[in-house]
Amino acid sequence: MEILKGAVAAAKIKEEIDHEMGRLNGYTPRLAIVRVGEKPDDISYERNAIKKMEKLGLLADSYTFPADISDGEFKEQFQKINQDENIDGILLLRPLPKQIREKDIERMIDPGKDLDGISPENIAKVFAGEEDGFAPCTAEAVIEILKAGNISLEGKRMTIVGRSMVVGRPLAMLALKENATVTICHTRTKDLEGTCRNAQILAAAAGKARMLNGSFVGDGAVVIDVGINVDEDGNLCGDVDFASIQDKAAAATPVPGGVGGVTTSVLAKHLVRAALARK
Ligand code: NDP
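Above: the input record for the complex with NDP. Below: its predicted structure, written as tokens.
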């Protein structure tokens, strides 16, 4: 089984970024990472994003707010970031605490700075198959990994486990745009195992540690594992039981070392695109 390392796609994206940076005449794009509270997952994502921006010669600032900030106060602060001329793109770490109406923020964010595709305008573009919006970075990272591995989606049966607005649904739309025949699975899906086994490309985004084992994978399938979970021993693992698919899959992404790092590369690519559009 071939291991689809995220580093290969990340290197390809870096080349694209380097090329695009040349068009910015020395200007360095600036990212604002907005975090409310101190959730370890958010802090870890923020740290990885900052590291990636630094590595690519991009600027990133963190804007952090207390977990108990009021809806009104957060909106006021968020609008300042949104309207700051020195900021080219925004990454909002979600979910936000309950007292903040997240839907309002999705409608408020400037679609031109909305690097993770949460605004209605960007979502509509992804669903319409238009290319000038921003898709959620993780969903796009899956497509980038397949492309970097020279795996065509054209006419392939692709099954996605998960229907969230962050991964499953936008990924289905991006795959459809690449002419895959897409099936989306969720907790009410009957015969999940058979539906997954029938796929030529299987993308797992359920958030359940190692739930998809070898019997969910068809012979010669390509498996992309989006899941980031912590198992009972405290180890990081994906949604796929990597050891049990070795003899069935043709290729698969590892966790860690797969989709995660490519997500921040896509974020960087979006930042440069946002900066170019604002110049
Ligand atoms: P959500 O919890 O929002 O969605 C999970 C989806 O999986 C839901 O649609 C749910 O179905 C479905 N699901 C859950 N359990 C099962 C099951 N037993 N059988 C079938 N379907 C199931 O998660 P996210 O989409 O936000 O994230 C998914 C995973 O991806 C997580 O592990 C997360 O950590 C990871 N992730 C990784 C990123 C990266 O950069 N690599 C970024 C974002 C997320 P239903 O709708 O019916 O409830």
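Notes for the reader.
The CA atoms of residues 16 and 270 lie 11 Å apart.
The mean pLDDT is 97.
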